[in-house]
Design a protein that fits this description.
Oligomer: single chain
Number of helices: 10
Order of helices and strands: HHHHHHHHHH
Structural class: mainly alpha
Shape: rod-shaped
Number of strands: 0
Length: about 300
């Protein structure tokens, strides 16, 4: 069971993680609005040179003017045509959200949740919370002094997972009897497995987002295809059919892109946090085992 103090601390950390995630999530939109609000500098108009005034041609000049258009036409026909480069189309984040439809807001909500969970895990999955150094020092001293009651009190005053593991092992110690190290070790392994499962279950939510996000993007793909073929079937004009087809396909592509981006992002964060959690669980089990070994050696002495 989680105590009231732990619940308040966890609630505060969730609130901080939500604020930071909201700030990170809204930052690209503020930059996008700033770029759209920036004034565009108009291009300078092209300078045109006025043709020289026409003079009344004489007979020889008139002959030249009749030949000149023919020569100019032949030069223009011989000159190769220069291809004008097409303008590059840029896709902005706002266009993806607008053209992606309502499914993009679901994907955006999943990305916000992934960022909030990542920040929450970074704040809670730490050595100082799973296996506090001050607690381990007091527990080692009590174990070396063979003071089981003091060790139980130290574990009761600490809410860390390491304290719960050691406390579950101490329940197997019976006053006046020889210390059964194998039974204590089995109790420690059982409680360590339960604590590790709780931590893994907490981290599993990020993996769920990594799996669900591409499926939501695939749902948007199917929805866009339904819009496209429905518009083709119901529209009578060819131009309207082409417009509906392009709109549905663009929505399908945008939602697929968004779902894959969020899924890849969440999967990468899950892999990083999984390695971090594996390392911390190993260190916690090693520290708890060292305390029980000190207690067993003190009992034998």
């Amino acid at each position: 069971m989680i105590s009231r103090g732990e619940y308040i601390v966890m609630k505060k950390r969730l609130f901080i993680a939500g604020l930071v995630a909201c700030a990170l999530f809204c930052l690209p939109f503020s930059q996008l609005q700033a770029q759209e609000a920036a004034p565009k500098v108009p291009a300078a108009p092209a300078m045109r040179v006025a043709p020289p005034p026409a003079s009344s041609p004489t007979a020889p000049d008139a002959a030249k003017t009749t030949v000149a258009p023919v020569a100019a036409a032949s030069e223009n026909a011989a000159a190769p045509e220069v291809a004008v480069p097409a303008e590059e189309t840029t896709i902005t984040l706002k266009q993806i959200f607008v053209k992606g439809g309502w499914i993009m807001y679901v994907i955006a909500g999943l990305s916000f949740l992934a960022i909030a969970l990542t920040i929450f895990y970074l704040l809670t999955i730490r050595r100082g919370l799973l296996c506090p150094e001050a607690f381990m020092l007091d527990a080692r001293d009590a174990a070396e002094n063979n003071d089981v009651e003091a060790l139980k009190d130290i574990c009761a005053d600490c809410s860390a997972p390491a304290a719960r593991i050691i406390a579950a092992s101490l329940d197997q110690v019976v006053a006046g009897q020889a210390l059964d190290y194998s039974r204590i070790r089995d109790a420690m392994e059982d409680e360590g497995g339960r604590q590790a499962s709780a931590l893994w279950q907490r981290l599993q939510y990020l993996m769920d987002i990594a799996v669900i996000s591409p499926m939501v993007g695939l749902l948007g793909t199917v929805w866009g295809m339904m819009i496209s073929f429905g518009g083709i079937e119901n529209s009578a004009e060819f131009a309207k059919k082409a417009e509906t087809l392009a709109s549905g396909i663009s929505q399908a592509m945008y939602t697929t892109f968004g779902g894959l981006i969020v899924g890849i992002f969440a999967m990468a964060l899950y892999d990083i946090l999984r390695g971090r959690l594996n390392k911390m669980i190993g260190e916690m089990e090693s520290e708890c085992g060292s305390v029980l070994k000190r207690l067993a050696s003190a009992k034998k002495a």
